[in-house]
């Protein structure tokens, strides 16, 4: 099994990306700069940032080339009432506690921490934070708000307690804030000036702050972290590197500024788009988007993962050979053949048994998992676990290559995987439909596939999958689906692989309860926002719910809204889903909604054509019957 932790051990050839970022940071003419390392969830951002950190920083508190590197996980501040203040305080504390520069900047850190306290006071709620903190002071406990201590000391404890427990407690504290409060612009300007002075007195050449995992934060916390970073913009000698999924960041900005309530949200020149773009452009001077792994890179990655797992200490030889290979051929595949002469024959044979099958499927895995390193690891972990289950269950004549091929379909197109499950379960493990599919694919008859089985089976990656060895139509698939039953009894796409933003959108659609809110959600958070793999996951989640409750008018209405907005593959997904649910429970109330939706999307008509005119589905769905 493989862990999912970030690492500076470069199995992806990502050091070239890290080296590019380091080159930018080391160019003093570019500083100050904020760099955004953007990529999908699990794309390898954290590993790149770890390489950057290790390359730039010294051991412990030692400085390398007079560069101070601070690394923060944005998710750490998720539980704070004010993530913005928590991040600022953490940065200043790192300076104060540093063994080399701490004494040089003692006065500046003290002053900066007081400024952060004021930011915290101005940002926190009176009833939940300030009043309880003040009460703690009045009863002899530790105060959470040092900025009030001067005013509190003028009153005796009983008088202070009476003021804090009375109805005018909030007015009393507001008066203290107004009496001592700086203007916001003044506070920000002073903070920036004091921070610059601290850097100058520390005698470092540059400060590099790396903030990772922002895309795991809630929208509110993510924006608070970004607002903290904005305070440092244009402060000399600083470089901020932010690792995040840009889709999550954009969603958080939209959430913060409520752009989903703005008219013409689909217009690229609308205020909605400009707010998000302007915000990011002002914050991020250098956006760097990580490319997805190619099929050659996926095969290389899989080879190295298996080598690391099987070889233990001998893996260092493979890693060294791989690095030399990369220097001479960055486009080729470092595969099983490259291991000859690097490791012992016995080790080579052991690795070959593990890696050859999966590596041969790398082009399909690349398309199915979108070249995503995290999903590849999870795919391999599941494959390994199921392989062990085969051994424990002692299933005879089990072909591991069949399991591998089925799992590629399971992870790349879960709805089709579920369809194949239904076909084979009704035909004692075999599927006549699959035999036809393989024939159409072998003839490269995409039109035939599309006409008879729908657009899903006519996708280029599915045709490649159908043509890949081994052919499955003459194999009893019951044992293979039995091994995969964990994915058939739970969400077919695997909850651990569902990105946070897809879960949030799905939950929002389910719980909206209002047609207008549903319409807004689809038009602003689904249409032109979700990529193909996100939509597939969304459809899988929705289909799973409809299989459980096919009579739910609201679940059908969600699909109607998706189809009305012409969301990619929504009509095809709905039609496939209808074939698998209890037809007797389909609500007739859908007629009017479908009739209205059909005016905006003529493709909806093709659903009726797939069913017999006298069938319940046809009568329930066709508004003309």
Automatic annotation (TrEMBL):
InterPro entries (alphabetical): KAP_P-loop, NTPase_KAP_P-loop, P-loop_NTPase
Domain KAP NTPase positions: 18-389
Pfam family for this entry, one: KAP_NTPase
TM segment ranges: none
Protein name: ATPase
Source organism (scientific name): Marivirga lumbricoides
